Amino acid sequence: MEPTVAVLVLVSATMHPIWNALAKRDGDPEWMFFSLLLLTTAFGGGHALAVGEDLSIGRAWPFPLISAAGLSLYGIALVLTLRRGDLSVYYPIIRSSPLFIVLVGYFLLGERYSASLLLGIALVLGGAFLLQYRRGARLLHDPVTLGLAVLGMAGSGTYSISDARGVQLVEPMFMFFWSGALALPVFAAFLWLIHRRRDDSAFARFVTGWATRPWRHLAVGLLAYASYLLLLTAYQLGGNVAAVTSVRQASIPISVLLGGLLLKEIGIPARFAWSLVLAAGIVVIILSR
């Protein structure tokens, strides 16, 4: 991996747990995801107009549509997984998109990966999974929720592959704007479906949150936009999508360290050991050719 690409991805990974921690404090994950879609789409469109980027969607077709489909699938599967199951059990699967990317790349896109790159990805995925996985959890106990988590992984992998190809044709903010703009109505329809038959105050809480804490929402949106913009730039500079998404897993041990230092979470020594495995995988990936 080129040094510039590695630096961009690692900076992106450092920013990810910061906005994620801010977002978690507001609860109601479906509305926070909706807020993120709104903000990052607006930031992408504004950024594109500011630099004079042509937003004609045909310039990168069909990648914006594929990215939007993957983003919609990821968001919907994530929300349904959160509503049905324990995040600590199923989130490691959702975060395993590099595995999906490697499989799709090899079997469908004709990609070939070096042994050292595959070893690095395996170390990263193994370390990341064991960092987040809760002992005693039974993945097969709820096959529906497990299936939703796998769909979330597939959605994340799909938009990553599509974004990486799209930014070879257009600037990153173009892909950001169109994938968000096309995903927004899909996710809005999903929110209407899951809330229409019961008295739910989630939307009211969302509006109240915006009214009382607008700067938090804006900070979350801006950090999320900047973090993924760096990732798209890494793709544009030629970063291998499987390698980039694997190195971005560095956000997980950063979250663990923040949890230990700020939240006094338990089990930090064992989790730190798995962090070292993940870090070793990242080093292998960066040194791979």
Overview of this structure, please?
The radius of gyration is 18 Å and the shape is globular. Helix 1 runs antiparallel to helix 10, helix 1 packs across helix 12 and helix 9 packs across helix 10. The mean pLDDT is 86. The chain is 78% helix and 0% strand. The protein has 289 residues and is an all-alpha fold.
List the helices and strands and how they pair.
Layout: H1 3-24, H2 29-50, H3 63-84, H4 87-94, H5 97-107, H6 115-132, H7 143-166, H8 172-195, H9 202-212, H10 214-236, H11 241-247, H12 251-262, H13 268-287
Helix pairs in contact: 1-10, 1-12, 2-8, 2-10, 3-4, 3-7, 3-8, 4-6, 4-7, 5-7, 5-11, 6-11, 6-13, 9-10, 12-13
Major sheet description: none
Number of strands: 0
Spatial shape: globular
Share of helix, binned:
over 70%
Using only C-alpha atoms, the radius of gyration works out to: 18 Å
Low-pLDDT residue intervals, each spanning 5 or more residues: none
Q: How would you classify the helix and strand content by structural class? A: mainly alpha
Mean pLDDT: 86
- What is the first-to-last residue Cα distance? 6 Å
N to C succession of SSEs: HHHHHHHHHHHHH
Number of helices: 13
Q: β content, as a range? A: under 5%
List keywords for this structure.
289 residues; single chain
Can you describe this structure in just a few lines?
With 289 residues, the chain is an all-alpha fold.
